[in-house]
């Protein structure tokens, strides 16, 4: 089980500094984000990775189009195409896709699902040509209105059903999905269908920060999620990729970069030890 640092965990720091410090902390893989890669340029990021000896194993994130129409929808679809090109140029094998929330004029979840599915089908030629696996990422149902109408692994599997598994998988984030009583069965199904494309760990506790409650994610082991069981479900389902630590937390972001990385490594190792003891 290999630790991968998702760049969100060190989001306030420049990507170049994060790559350098992560490598020094003994981390060999990183999950990139689209915006810092666009800002620096693909060629520059490729050089940073090559010089450090680090591998990029995922890219976050595109989509957010279930509530879009017309030119806004076309722009969101084009953003997916650009991100696929970046992944190809950097040899990044996976790209996360967030569905987007409900539009004001149509509160039907099934209709929103259908719009997401239409886009996935539309983009299939580009996805196939890129060699990148698009990962549909469920988001906690707290955010169904404005971020994602896909809130569970089972629902994500329904949306991508029938599409090639090598091109369309599911990303499981512990904070976003732990609440689901059917999670174990859905994870096992995702594994059996060879759609288990990514696994991100973080932790949950109340109260969430206000107003930006997305930034309430904790380091693994600092909250209430049974990460040992979840991790074992993921591994038993056949997942063999690196496990990303992805934490959105203003208090953690205020720490020195080296301290964030020390906490990341320590919490990941504790989580693995707990999972191994089950």
Q: In CATH's first tier, which class applies?
A: Alpha Beta
In terms of structural class, how would the helical and strand content be classed?
A: alpha/beta
Enumerate how many helices there are, as a single number. Answer: 12
Please tell me the overall pLDDT. 97
Return residue spans where pLDDT drops below 50 for at least 5 consecutive residues: none
Question: Taking Cα atoms only, what radius of gyration do you get, to the nearest Å?
Answer: 18 Å
Largest sheet: 8 strands, parallel, barrel
- Tell me the number of structural domains: 1
Shape designation: globular
Please bin the fraction of helical residues. 40-55%
What's the oligomerization state?
Answer: single chain
Number of strands: 8
């Amino acid at each position: 089980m290999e630790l991968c640092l998702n760049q969100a965990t060190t989001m306030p720091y420049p990507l170049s500094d994060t790559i350098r410090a992560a490598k020094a902390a003994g981390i060999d893989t990183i999950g990139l984000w689209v915006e810092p890669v666009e800002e620096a340029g693909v060629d520059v990021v490729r050089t940073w990775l090559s010089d450090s000896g680090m591998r990029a194993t995922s890219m976050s994130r595109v989509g957010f189009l279930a509530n879009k129409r017309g030119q806004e929808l076309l722009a969101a679809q084009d953003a997916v195409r650009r991100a696929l090109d970046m992944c190809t140029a950097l040899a990044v094998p996976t790209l996360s896709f967030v569905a987007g929330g409900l539009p004001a004029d149509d509160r039907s979840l099934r209709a929103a699902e259908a719009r997401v599915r239409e886009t996935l089908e539309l983009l299939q030629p580009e996805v196939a040509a890129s060699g990148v696996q698009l990962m549909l990422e469920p988001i906690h149902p707290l955010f169904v209105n404005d971020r994602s109408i896909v809130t569970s692994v089972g629902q994500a599997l329904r949306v991508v059903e029938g599409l090639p598994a090598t091109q369309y998988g599911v990303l499981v984030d512990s904070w976003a999905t732990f609440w689901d009583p059917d999670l174990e069965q859905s994870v096992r199904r995702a594994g059996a269908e060879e759609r288990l494309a990514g696994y991100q760990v973080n932790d949950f506790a109340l109260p969430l920060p206000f107003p930006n409650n997305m930034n309430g994610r904790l380091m693994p082991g600092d909250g209430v999620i049974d990460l040992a069981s979840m991790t074992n479900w993921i591994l038993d389902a056949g997942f063999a990729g690196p496990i990303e630590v992805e934490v959105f937390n203003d208090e953690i972001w205020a720490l020195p970069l080296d301290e964030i990385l020390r906490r990341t490594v320590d919490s990941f190792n504790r989580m693995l030890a707990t999972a191994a003891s089950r």
